[in-house]
Amino acid sequence: MQPGYVSPVEPSRSEQEAKDLQGRLMQVSRLATIGEMAAGVAHELNQPLAAITTYAQAGARLLERSDPAIEDVREALRQIAAQAMRAGAIIRRMRSLVRHVEVERRPTDLNALIEELAELMETDARVHGVRLRFELGPGLPQVMVDRVQIQHVLLNLLRNALEALADVPAAERAVVVSTALGESGEVELSLSDTGPGIDPEVAERMYDPFFTTKELGTGLGLSVSTTIIGAHDGTLGHRANEPRGASFFVRLPAA
After folding, report:
1. Is the pTM of this model over 0.85?
2. What are 108's strand-pairing partners?
C-alpha cells in the first residue's frame, strides 16, 4: 500500500458514525423534553382516566336498580369509550414523540401540526401558571418537514419559554404561538414570552451543545433544534419581544 493512501471506506464510516451520533443526541433531547413535561402529561392522562372511573361507577349504580334506565347506561358506556380513546390518543402522541424513527419529510400544514400538540401544550402551560395563546395565520403554504422533528422543536421552545417565566408574577405570564408568511415567502413559526428577555452573555452561547442555564438541563435542546431546522433548510433564531420578553422563531421554506 502506497504512503498516504486512504481507504475509501473510512470517510463513509465516519459519516455514518456522525449521523448515528446526531440521531442519538436527538433522541436524548426528545426524551429530556418529554421528561420535563411529565407533570403536564400526568395531569392530561388523569382527566380521562378519572372520567372513565366516574362513568363506570355511575353505570354500575344504574344497573343495580330494579328498573335500570338503559339509555343512561348506554350514554355512560359511550362516555367511557370516548374517554378511553382520548387517553389512547395522548399515549400515541407521546410515543410518536419519543420513538426513534427514520426521518420522513412530507408536505405538511404547519398550523395542523401545531394544532395536534395544542392540548398537550395548553396542559403544560397550565401546570406552570402561564396563559398560552395561538395566533395561526390563515392560508399558509405547506412546508416539507418531518412532523416528529418539528414538533420536538416546538415543544422544546415552549419549555424554554415556560421556564423563562418562572420568576415573573403569575398575572403577567404569557406565551403566544404564532405562524405567518414571511417577506421572502417562507413560513415562520414563533413563540413569544413575557419573561425577562435573554442575557447578552447567555445569547452568545445558548445554541452551543451542552450549554445550559438549567440546574438539570442537558444543554441539547437549542443545539439539536438548530440542527433539525438547518437540515430542513430553515433558520432558528431569536429577537426581543415587545414590550418585554423574548421571541424565538423558526423559518421554513415553502414546499
Report:
1. no
2. 143
